[in-house]
Amino acid sequence: MLEEIGTTEKGEWVINLGPQHPSTHGVLHLLITLSGETIQKVEPHLGYIHRSIEKMCESLSYRQFIYVTSRMDYLSSHINNHGCALCVEKGLQVEVPPRAQVIRVLMDELTRLASHQLWWGALGMDIGALTPFFHAFRERETINEIMEETCGARLTMNYMVPGGVMADIHPNFQHRVKQFIAFFRTKIDEYDELLSDNFIFLRRMQGVGYLSREDAISYGCTGPTARGSDLSCDIRKLYPYEVYDRLSFVEVIETGGDCHARYRVRLQEMRQSLSILDQLIDNIPEGDFQAKTKAVLKLPKGEFYSRVETARGEFGVYIISEGGTTPYRIKFRSPGFSNLSALDHMSRGHKIGDLVAIMGTLDLVIPDIDR
Amino acid sequence: MHLTPEATLEESGEWLGLVLAPDQAKSCLSRLRHAPEIEMDYLFCLTGVDWKTHFSLVYHLSSTQHRQTMVVKVKLDREQPEMDTVSDIWRTAEFHEREAYDLFGIRFRSHPDLRRLFLTEDWIGWPLRKDYEDPVNMIKL
User: Fold this and answer.
1) How many separate domains does chain B show?
2) Exposed (0-12), middle (13-18) or buried (19+): which is A199, by Cβ within 10 Å?
3) What's the ipTM?
4) Least packed by Cβ within 10 Å: which of A259, A279, A371, B33?
5) What are the chain B neighbours of A340 within 8 Å (beta carbons)?
6) Chain A: residue nearest B17 by CA?
Protein backbone atom coordinates (compact mmCIF):
# COMPACT_ATOMS: atom_id res chain seq x y z
CA MET A 1 0.00 0.00 0.00
CA LEU A 2 1.13 3.52 -0.57
CA GLU A 3 2.55 4.80 2.70
CA GLU A 4 2.33 8.42 3.64
CA ILE A 5 5.54 9.90 4.95
CA GLY A 6 5.38 9.96 8.71
CA THR A 7 4.54 7.33 11.24
CA THR A 8 2.45 4.21 10.71
CA GLU A 9 0.03 2.82 13.27
CA LYS A 10 2.71 0.49 14.60
CA GLY A 11 4.95 3.44 15.37
CA GLU A 12 7.20 2.76 12.42
CA TRP A 13 8.81 5.63 10.56
CA VAL A 14 8.42 6.00 6.81
CA ILE A 15 11.22 8.07 5.35
CA ASN A 16 12.47 9.02 1.90
CA LEU A 17 15.76 8.06 0.39
CA GLY A 18 16.10 10.10 -2.77
CA PRO A 19 15.18 10.83 -5.48
CA GLN A 20 17.98 13.34 -5.11
CA HIS A 21 20.67 11.52 -3.16
CA PRO A 22 24.33 10.89 -3.86
CA SER A 23 24.08 7.19 -3.13
CA THR A 24 21.09 6.18 -5.18
CA HIS A 25 23.05 6.45 -8.44
CA GLY A 26 20.33 8.11 -10.33
CA VAL A 27 16.88 9.34 -9.48
CA LEU A 28 15.58 6.46 -7.42
CA HIS A 29 13.03 7.25 -4.76
CA LEU A 30 12.91 4.71 -1.98
CA LEU A 31 10.26 4.76 0.72
CA ILE A 32 11.81 2.99 3.67
CA THR A 33 9.66 1.76 6.55
CA LEU A 34 11.78 1.66 9.67
CA SER A 35 11.17 0.21 13.07
CA GLY A 36 13.76 1.98 15.11
CA GLU A 37 16.72 1.74 12.78
CA THR A 38 15.86 -1.59 11.24
CA ILE A 39 14.31 -1.69 7.80
CA GLN A 40 10.93 -3.37 7.59
CA LYS A 41 10.15 -2.64 3.96
CA VAL A 42 11.71 -0.84 1.02
CA GLU A 43 9.42 0.41 -1.69
CA PRO A 44 10.99 1.85 -4.84
CA HIS A 45 9.14 4.61 -6.65
CA LEU A 46 10.21 4.81 -10.24
CA GLY A 47 9.44 7.06 -13.13
CA TYR A 48 11.53 10.13 -12.40
CA ILE A 49 13.46 9.61 -15.60
CA HIS A 50 10.83 7.75 -17.58
CA ARG A 51 11.12 9.06 -21.11
CA SER A 52 8.80 6.57 -22.82
CA ILE A 53 11.62 5.29 -24.98
CA GLU A 54 9.59 2.29 -26.08
CA LYS A 55 6.82 4.50 -27.42
CA MET A 56 9.35 6.81 -29.08
CA CYS A 57 10.97 3.90 -30.88
CA GLU A 58 7.67 3.10 -32.57
CA SER A 59 8.10 6.22 -34.66
CA LEU A 60 11.85 5.96 -35.26
CA SER A 61 13.44 4.02 -38.07
CA TYR A 62 15.52 0.94 -37.49
CA ARG A 63 18.70 2.95 -37.87
CA GLN A 64 17.56 5.67 -35.51
CA PHE A 65 16.21 3.77 -32.53
CA ILE A 66 19.58 2.24 -31.67
CA TYR A 67 20.91 5.50 -30.34
CA VAL A 68 18.20 6.15 -27.78
CA THR A 69 19.37 3.01 -26.06
CA SER A 70 22.74 4.63 -25.36
CA ARG A 71 20.84 6.90 -23.03
CA MET A 72 19.32 4.07 -21.11
CA ASP A 73 22.20 2.34 -19.42
CA TYR A 74 24.67 5.07 -20.21
CA LEU A 75 27.56 3.22 -18.61
CA SER A 76 27.20 0.33 -21.05
CA SER A 77 26.17 2.37 -24.04
CA HIS A 78 28.21 0.36 -26.57
CA ILE A 79 26.74 -2.87 -25.31
CA ASN A 80 23.18 -1.56 -25.48
CA ASN A 81 23.72 -0.40 -29.04
CA HIS A 82 25.26 -3.75 -29.81
CA GLY A 83 22.17 -5.57 -28.60
CA CYS A 84 19.90 -3.46 -30.78
CA ALA A 85 22.14 -3.88 -33.82
CA LEU A 86 22.16 -7.65 -33.28
CA CYS A 87 18.37 -7.74 -33.21
CA VAL A 88 18.03 -5.77 -36.42
CA GLU A 89 20.66 -7.95 -38.08
CA LYS A 90 18.77 -11.02 -36.97
CA GLY A 91 15.69 -9.70 -38.71
CA LEU A 92 17.53 -8.68 -41.86
CA GLN A 93 19.66 -11.85 -41.86
CA VAL A 94 22.78 -9.78 -42.40
CA GLU A 95 26.20 -11.27 -41.81
CA VAL A 96 28.57 -9.01 -39.89
CA PRO A 97 32.14 -9.02 -41.26
CA PRO A 98 34.83 -10.48 -38.94
CA ARG A 99 36.65 -7.20 -38.48
CA ALA A 100 33.48 -5.51 -37.27
CA GLN A 101 32.77 -8.40 -34.91
CA VAL A 102 36.15 -8.11 -33.25
CA ILE A 103 35.93 -4.32 -33.03
CA ARG A 104 32.50 -4.65 -31.43
CA VAL A 105 33.75 -7.10 -28.81
CA LEU A 106 36.75 -4.88 -28.07
CA MET A 107 34.48 -1.90 -27.54
CA ASP A 108 32.14 -3.98 -25.38
CA GLU A 109 34.88 -5.15 -23.09
CA LEU A 110 36.36 -1.66 -22.76
CA THR A 111 32.90 -0.42 -21.84
CA ARG A 112 32.48 -3.19 -19.30
CA LEU A 113 35.80 -2.24 -17.74
CA ALA A 114 34.85 1.42 -17.60
CA SER A 115 31.49 0.60 -16.03
CA HIS A 116 33.03 -1.67 -13.40
CA GLN A 117 35.64 0.96 -12.61
CA LEU A 118 32.94 3.52 -11.96
CA TRP A 119 31.00 0.95 -9.92
CA TRP A 120 34.04 0.25 -7.77
CA GLY A 121 34.74 3.93 -7.14
CA ALA A 122 31.12 4.72 -6.38
CA LEU A 123 30.80 1.73 -4.05
CA GLY A 124 33.82 2.89 -2.09
CA MET A 125 32.38 6.38 -1.91
CA ASP A 126 29.02 5.09 -0.68
CA ILE A 127 30.63 3.03 2.04
CA GLY A 128 32.56 6.10 3.12
CA ALA A 129 35.98 5.60 1.55
CA LEU A 130 36.46 8.56 -0.79
CA THR A 131 39.89 7.65 -2.20
CA PRO A 132 38.78 4.77 -4.48
CA PHE A 133 36.50 7.17 -6.33
CA PHE A 134 39.39 9.28 -7.55
CA HIS A 135 41.51 6.27 -8.45
CA ALA A 136 38.67 4.72 -10.45
CA PHE A 137 37.90 7.89 -12.37
CA ARG A 138 41.54 8.51 -13.19
CA GLU A 139 41.82 5.10 -14.81
CA ARG A 140 38.45 5.47 -16.46
CA GLU A 141 39.66 8.66 -18.16
CA THR A 142 42.04 6.61 -20.28
CA ILE A 143 39.18 4.51 -21.62
CA ASN A 144 37.08 7.61 -22.24
CA GLU A 145 39.90 9.17 -24.23
CA ILE A 146 40.38 6.01 -26.30
CA MET A 147 36.65 6.02 -27.04
CA GLU A 148 36.68 9.69 -27.90
CA GLU A 149 39.44 9.20 -30.46
CA THR A 150 37.64 6.41 -32.28
CA CYS A 151 33.94 6.99 -31.66
CA GLY A 152 33.80 10.72 -31.12
CA ALA A 153 32.11 10.70 -27.73
CA ARG A 154 33.00 9.84 -24.14
CA LEU A 155 29.75 8.58 -22.72
CA THR A 156 27.04 7.89 -25.26
CA MET A 157 29.09 6.55 -28.10
CA ASN A 158 26.77 6.00 -31.05
CA TYR A 159 29.14 3.72 -32.87
CA MET A 160 27.30 0.49 -33.71
CA VAL A 161 25.11 0.25 -36.78
CA PRO A 162 23.16 -2.69 -38.15
CA GLY A 163 25.83 -4.48 -40.15
CA GLY A 164 28.91 -3.45 -38.25
CA VAL A 165 30.40 -0.29 -36.84
CA MET A 166 30.05 3.23 -38.10
CA ALA A 167 33.71 3.93 -38.87
CA ASP A 168 37.01 2.13 -38.72
CA ILE A 169 39.11 2.28 -35.57
CA HIS A 170 41.59 5.10 -35.22
CA PRO A 171 45.21 4.17 -36.09
CA ASN A 172 46.20 4.85 -32.45
CA PHE A 173 43.55 2.52 -31.06
CA GLN A 174 45.56 -0.71 -30.86
CA HIS A 175 48.60 0.95 -29.37
CA ARG A 176 46.63 2.84 -26.74
CA VAL A 177 44.60 -0.18 -25.71
CA LYS A 178 47.75 -2.27 -25.35
CA GLN A 179 49.27 0.42 -23.16
CA PHE A 180 46.11 0.55 -21.12
CA ILE A 181 45.99 -3.22 -20.59
CA ALA A 182 49.54 -3.27 -19.26
CA PHE A 183 48.87 -0.27 -17.03
CA PHE A 184 45.53 -1.44 -15.64
CA ARG A 185 46.71 -4.95 -14.78
CA THR A 186 48.81 -3.52 -12.00
CA LYS A 187 46.02 -1.19 -10.94
CA ILE A 188 43.57 -3.99 -10.20
CA ASP A 189 45.98 -5.37 -7.65
CA GLU A 190 46.16 -1.86 -6.23
CA TYR A 191 42.36 -1.84 -6.00
CA ASP A 192 42.56 -5.01 -3.97
CA GLU A 193 45.09 -3.45 -1.65
CA LEU A 194 43.05 -0.28 -1.25
CA LEU A 195 39.63 -1.68 -0.57
CA SER A 196 39.11 -5.42 -0.74
CA ASP A 197 41.10 -6.40 2.33
CA ASN A 198 40.15 -3.41 4.41
CA PHE A 199 38.75 -4.52 7.76
CA ILE A 200 35.95 -1.96 7.85
CA PHE A 201 34.97 -2.75 4.27
CA LEU A 202 34.79 -6.46 5.01
CA ARG A 203 32.65 -5.89 8.07
CA ARG A 204 30.22 -3.80 6.02
CA MET A 205 30.01 -6.21 3.12
CA GLN A 206 30.12 -9.71 4.52
CA GLY A 207 26.82 -11.18 5.58
CA VAL A 208 24.86 -8.21 4.27
CA GLY A 209 22.09 -8.50 1.71
CA TYR A 210 21.89 -12.24 1.26
CA LEU A 211 20.18 -13.44 -1.91
CA SER A 212 19.68 -17.16 -2.28
CA ARG A 213 19.89 -18.91 -5.63
CA GLU A 214 16.18 -19.70 -5.75
CA ASP A 215 15.32 -16.09 -5.02
CA ALA A 216 17.75 -14.87 -7.64
CA ILE A 217 15.99 -17.08 -10.22
CA SER A 218 12.51 -16.13 -9.05
CA TYR A 219 13.24 -12.40 -9.09
CA GLY A 220 14.79 -12.70 -12.53
CA CYS A 221 18.12 -11.35 -11.33
CA THR A 222 20.87 -11.29 -13.86
CA GLY A 223 24.46 -10.27 -14.27
CA PRO A 224 26.93 -10.10 -11.40
CA THR A 225 24.03 -9.81 -8.94
CA ALA A 226 22.89 -13.31 -9.84
CA ARG A 227 26.38 -14.70 -10.36
CA GLY A 228 27.19 -13.77 -6.77
CA SER A 229 24.37 -16.14 -5.78
CA ASP A 230 25.68 -19.15 -7.65
CA LEU A 231 23.51 -18.68 -10.75
CA SER A 232 25.27 -19.16 -14.05
CA CYS A 233 23.74 -16.59 -16.38
CA ASP A 234 26.49 -14.97 -18.43
CA ILE A 235 25.00 -14.45 -21.89
CA ARG A 236 28.50 -14.46 -23.35
CA LYS A 237 28.85 -18.08 -22.28
CA LEU A 238 25.31 -19.41 -22.52
CA TYR A 239 24.22 -17.84 -25.82
CA PRO A 240 27.47 -16.64 -27.37
CA TYR A 241 27.34 -13.91 -29.96
CA GLU A 242 30.02 -12.37 -32.18
CA VAL A 243 33.40 -13.95 -31.37
CA TYR A 244 32.76 -14.86 -27.72
CA ASP A 245 32.60 -18.57 -28.45
CA ARG A 246 36.19 -18.50 -29.69
CA LEU A 247 37.60 -16.66 -26.72
CA SER A 248 38.84 -18.23 -23.55
CA PHE A 249 37.56 -16.54 -20.45
CA VAL A 250 35.98 -17.70 -17.24
CA GLU A 251 32.43 -17.03 -16.11
CA VAL A 252 32.96 -15.77 -12.59
CA ILE A 253 30.56 -17.32 -10.10
CA GLU A 254 30.61 -16.97 -6.33
CA THR A 255 28.44 -18.89 -3.93
CA GLY A 256 28.32 -16.43 -1.02
CA GLY A 257 25.14 -14.61 -2.06
CA ASP A 258 26.00 -11.57 0.05
CA CYS A 259 27.39 -8.17 -0.91
CA HIS A 260 30.98 -9.32 -0.66
CA ALA A 261 30.36 -12.15 -3.15
CA ARG A 262 28.90 -9.72 -5.69
CA TYR A 263 31.87 -7.43 -5.12
CA ARG A 264 34.33 -10.23 -5.80
CA VAL A 265 32.44 -11.23 -8.96
CA ARG A 266 32.84 -7.78 -10.47
CA LEU A 267 36.50 -7.49 -9.54
CA GLN A 268 37.21 -10.83 -11.18
CA GLU A 269 35.17 -9.78 -14.21
CA MET A 270 37.48 -6.83 -14.66
CA ARG A 271 40.40 -9.25 -14.84
CA GLN A 272 38.51 -11.44 -17.32
CA SER A 273 37.76 -8.42 -19.49
CA LEU A 274 41.46 -7.58 -19.56
CA SER A 275 42.19 -11.12 -20.64
CA ILE A 276 39.66 -10.89 -23.47
CA LEU A 277 41.12 -7.58 -24.62
CA ASP A 278 44.56 -9.18 -24.57
CA GLN A 279 43.42 -12.06 -26.76
CA LEU A 280 41.83 -9.82 -29.35
CA ILE A 281 43.88 -6.65 -29.58
CA ASP A 282 46.64 -8.15 -31.71
CA ASN A 283 44.31 -10.26 -33.83
CA ILE A 284 41.94 -7.78 -35.45
CA PRO A 285 41.23 -9.24 -38.89
CA GLU A 286 41.43 -7.08 -41.99
CA GLY A 287 38.38 -6.36 -44.05
CA ASP A 288 35.21 -4.32 -44.03
CA PHE A 289 34.01 -2.66 -40.88
CA GLN A 290 30.40 -2.62 -42.05
CA ALA A 291 28.27 -4.97 -44.11
CA LYS A 292 26.39 -3.53 -47.04
CA THR A 293 22.82 -2.78 -46.08
CA LYS A 294 20.11 -0.74 -47.74
CA ALA A 295 19.72 2.88 -46.77
CA VAL A 296 16.19 2.38 -45.46
CA LEU A 297 15.88 -0.81 -43.44
CA LYS A 298 12.70 -2.83 -43.35
CA LEU A 299 12.45 -5.85 -41.12
CA PRO A 300 10.16 -8.66 -42.31
CA LYS A 301 6.96 -9.35 -40.43
CA GLY A 302 7.69 -11.31 -37.29
CA GLU A 303 9.36 -11.01 -33.94
CA PHE A 304 13.00 -11.04 -32.99
CA TYR A 305 14.72 -11.22 -29.65
CA SER A 306 18.40 -10.71 -29.07
CA ARG A 307 20.30 -10.54 -25.82
CA VAL A 308 23.71 -9.26 -24.81
CA GLU A 309 25.57 -9.14 -21.54
CA THR A 310 25.95 -5.58 -20.30
CA ALA A 311 27.92 -4.70 -17.23
CA ARG A 312 24.70 -5.14 -15.24
CA GLY A 313 23.34 -8.29 -16.78
CA GLU A 314 21.18 -9.44 -19.62
CA PHE A 315 19.93 -6.70 -21.89
CA GLY A 316 17.23 -8.01 -24.19
CA VAL A 317 15.79 -6.32 -27.26
CA TYR A 318 12.42 -7.67 -28.42
CA ILE A 319 11.23 -6.26 -31.74
CA ILE A 320 7.79 -7.02 -33.15
CA SER A 321 7.71 -5.94 -36.74
CA GLU A 322 4.80 -5.61 -39.13
CA GLY A 323 6.99 -5.19 -42.18
CA GLY A 324 7.26 -1.41 -42.14
CA THR A 325 10.18 0.95 -41.75
CA THR A 326 9.49 1.50 -38.06
CA PRO A 327 9.03 -1.20 -35.44
CA TYR A 328 5.50 -2.01 -34.29
CA ARG A 329 6.54 -2.66 -30.71
CA ILE A 330 9.92 -2.71 -29.04
CA LYS A 331 10.49 -3.95 -25.56
CA PHE A 332 13.79 -3.50 -23.81
CA ARG A 333 14.44 -6.03 -21.11
CA SER A 334 16.67 -4.07 -18.79
CA PRO A 335 18.79 -5.85 -16.20
CA GLY A 336 18.32 -3.24 -13.50
CA PHE A 337 14.55 -3.65 -13.54
CA SER A 338 14.66 -7.22 -12.27
CA ASN A 339 17.62 -6.63 -9.98
CA LEU A 340 15.78 -3.78 -8.30
CA SER A 341 12.76 -5.95 -7.54
CA ALA A 342 14.97 -8.06 -5.30
CA LEU A 343 16.10 -5.03 -3.26
CA ASP A 344 13.14 -5.17 -0.86
CA HIS A 345 13.70 -8.84 -0.19
CA MET A 346 17.43 -8.43 0.37
CA SER A 347 17.34 -5.49 2.72
CA ARG A 348 14.67 -6.42 5.26
CA GLY A 349 16.11 -6.59 8.72
CA HIS A 350 19.18 -4.52 7.89
CA LYS A 351 20.07 -0.94 8.71
CA ILE A 352 20.06 2.01 6.31
CA GLY A 353 23.83 1.87 5.94
CA ASP A 354 23.49 -1.74 4.83
CA LEU A 355 20.83 -0.68 2.32
CA VAL A 356 23.34 1.69 0.75
CA ALA A 357 25.90 -1.11 0.57
CA ILE A 358 23.34 -3.45 -1.03
CA MET A 359 22.35 -0.85 -3.62
CA GLY A 360 26.01 -0.29 -4.36
CA THR A 361 26.60 -3.94 -5.09
CA LEU A 362 23.41 -4.24 -7.16
CA ASP A 363 24.95 -1.62 -9.46
CA LEU A 364 21.73 0.05 -10.50
CA VAL A 365 21.56 2.66 -13.20
CA ILE A 366 18.15 4.23 -12.94
CA PRO A 367 17.66 5.41 -16.54
CA ASP A 368 18.06 1.75 -17.46
CA ILE A 369 15.19 0.83 -15.14
CA ASP A 370 12.88 3.67 -16.05
CA ARG A 371 13.55 3.72 -19.77
CA MET B 1 2.38 -31.54 -25.81
CA HIS B 2 0.58 -33.60 -23.23
CA LEU B 3 1.15 -30.92 -20.62
CA THR B 4 -0.64 -28.20 -22.51
CA PRO B 5 -3.58 -29.67 -24.40
CA GLU B 6 -5.34 -26.33 -24.60
CA ALA B 7 -2.50 -24.45 -26.27
CA THR B 8 -1.84 -23.90 -29.93
CA LEU B 9 1.78 -24.23 -30.92
CA GLU B 10 3.57 -21.66 -32.98
CA GLU B 11 6.96 -22.43 -34.48
CA SER B 12 7.56 -19.41 -36.67
CA GLY B 13 9.91 -17.64 -34.31
CA GLU B 14 13.27 -18.59 -32.92
CA TRP B 15 11.81 -20.50 -29.98
CA LEU B 16 8.80 -22.68 -29.45
CA GLY B 17 5.73 -20.56 -28.88
CA LEU B 18 2.46 -21.37 -27.13
CA VAL B 19 -0.69 -19.34 -27.66
CA LEU B 20 -3.15 -19.55 -24.78
CA ALA B 21 -6.55 -18.23 -23.87
CA PRO B 22 -6.60 -16.03 -20.76
CA ASP B 23 -8.77 -18.25 -18.58
CA GLN B 24 -6.46 -21.26 -18.97
CA ALA B 25 -3.19 -19.34 -19.07
CA LYS B 26 -2.42 -19.28 -15.38
CA SER B 27 -2.79 -23.00 -14.84
CA CYS B 28 -0.77 -23.76 -17.95
CA LEU B 29 2.02 -21.38 -16.90
CA SER B 30 2.02 -22.94 -13.48
CA ARG B 31 2.43 -26.38 -14.99
CA LEU B 32 5.29 -25.11 -17.16
CA ARG B 33 6.99 -23.84 -14.04
CA HIS B 34 6.60 -26.92 -11.92
CA ALA B 35 6.73 -29.87 -14.31
CA PRO B 36 10.10 -31.51 -13.68
CA GLU B 37 10.94 -32.18 -17.30
CA ILE B 38 10.35 -28.52 -18.30
CA GLU B 39 10.90 -26.44 -15.15
CA MET B 40 10.70 -22.97 -16.68
CA ASP B 41 11.83 -21.13 -13.58
CA TYR B 42 13.24 -17.94 -15.15
CA LEU B 43 10.82 -15.38 -16.53
CA PHE B 44 13.02 -12.88 -18.25
CA CYS B 45 10.64 -10.74 -20.25
CA LEU B 46 6.96 -9.88 -19.92
CA THR B 47 5.73 -7.71 -22.77
CA GLY B 48 2.37 -6.21 -23.51
CA VAL B 49 1.43 -5.64 -27.14
CA ASP B 50 -1.50 -3.67 -28.53
CA TRP B 51 -2.73 -5.26 -31.72
CA LYS B 52 -5.61 -2.78 -32.14
CA THR B 53 -8.21 -5.57 -32.19
CA HIS B 54 -6.92 -7.27 -29.08
CA PHE B 55 -4.07 -7.17 -26.60
CA SER B 56 -1.50 -9.84 -26.08
CA LEU B 57 0.93 -10.59 -23.29
CA VAL B 58 4.17 -12.27 -24.25
CA TYR B 59 6.03 -14.24 -21.59
CA HIS B 60 9.61 -15.22 -22.36
CA LEU B 61 10.51 -18.16 -20.15
CA SER B 62 13.69 -20.11 -19.75
CA SER B 63 14.83 -22.99 -17.64
CA THR B 64 18.05 -22.70 -15.67
CA GLN B 65 18.19 -26.48 -15.34
CA HIS B 66 17.51 -27.64 -18.87
CA ARG B 67 18.72 -24.50 -20.65
CA GLN B 68 15.68 -24.23 -22.90
CA THR B 69 13.76 -21.10 -23.84
CA MET B 70 10.16 -20.72 -24.85
CA VAL B 71 7.61 -18.02 -25.50
CA VAL B 72 4.04 -18.01 -24.20
CA LYS B 73 1.50 -15.62 -25.67
CA VAL B 74 -1.88 -14.88 -24.15
CA LYS B 75 -4.56 -13.14 -26.18
CA LEU B 76 -6.60 -10.63 -24.21
CA ASP B 77 -9.82 -8.81 -24.92
CA ARG B 78 -9.45 -5.23 -26.14
CA GLU B 79 -12.25 -3.66 -24.16
CA GLN B 80 -11.48 -5.25 -20.82
CA PRO B 81 -8.02 -6.79 -20.77
CA GLU B 82 -7.66 -8.95 -17.69
CA MET B 83 -5.31 -11.72 -16.77
CA ASP B 84 -4.39 -13.62 -13.62
CA THR B 85 -1.18 -12.56 -12.02
CA VAL B 86 1.83 -14.84 -12.21
CA SER B 87 3.72 -13.05 -9.45
CA ASP B 88 3.13 -16.01 -7.16
CA ILE B 89 4.95 -18.23 -9.67
CA TRP B 90 7.75 -15.82 -10.60
CA ARG B 91 8.42 -12.94 -8.19
CA THR B 92 9.87 -10.86 -11.00
CA ALA B 93 6.38 -10.56 -12.46
CA GLU B 94 5.36 -8.11 -9.72
CA PHE B 95 7.21 -5.25 -11.35
CA HIS B 96 6.64 -6.41 -14.91
CA GLU B 97 2.88 -6.63 -14.43
CA ARG B 98 2.78 -3.21 -12.82
CA GLU B 99 4.53 -1.89 -15.90
CA ALA B 100 2.03 -3.59 -18.22
CA TYR B 101 -0.82 -2.14 -16.17
CA ASP B 102 0.76 1.31 -16.23
CA LEU B 103 1.35 1.42 -19.96
CA PHE B 104 -1.55 -0.64 -21.35
CA GLY B 105 -4.22 -0.80 -18.69
CA ILE B 106 -4.15 -4.60 -18.46
CA ARG B 107 -5.53 -5.57 -15.05
CA PHE B 108 -3.94 -8.49 -13.27
CA ARG B 109 -6.24 -10.32 -10.89
CA SER B 110 -4.89 -11.00 -7.40
CA HIS B 111 -1.76 -8.93 -7.95
CA PRO B 112 -0.43 -7.96 -4.50
CA ASP B 113 0.04 -4.29 -5.35
CA LEU B 114 -1.34 -3.25 -8.73
CA ARG B 115 -0.70 0.42 -9.29
CA ARG B 116 1.17 2.58 -11.73
CA LEU B 117 4.90 2.18 -11.82
CA PHE B 118 6.41 4.90 -13.99
CA LEU B 119 3.68 7.46 -14.31
CA THR B 120 2.10 9.45 -11.51
CA GLU B 121 -1.00 8.00 -9.84
CA ASP B 122 -3.30 10.62 -11.27
CA TRP B 123 -2.28 10.05 -14.90
CA ILE B 124 -5.24 9.41 -17.17
CA GLY B 125 -4.88 7.06 -20.07
CA TRP B 126 -2.67 4.17 -21.09
CA PRO B 127 0.25 5.61 -23.06
CA LEU B 128 1.52 2.63 -25.02
CA ARG B 129 -1.85 1.87 -26.56
CA LYS B 130 -2.00 2.67 -30.22
CA ASP B 131 -4.99 5.00 -29.83
CA TYR B 132 -3.44 7.09 -27.05
CA GLU B 133 -3.75 10.79 -27.67
CA ASP B 134 -1.82 13.38 -25.71
CA PRO B 135 -1.74 16.81 -27.39
CA VAL B 136 0.54 18.23 -24.70
CA ASN B 137 3.28 15.58 -24.56
CA MET B 138 3.14 13.84 -27.93
CA ILE B 139 4.48 15.28 -31.15
CA LYS B 140 3.05 13.76 -34.31
CA LEU B 141 5.74 13.54 -36.95
Assistant:
1) 1
2) exposed
3) 0.90
4) A279
5) 95
6) A303
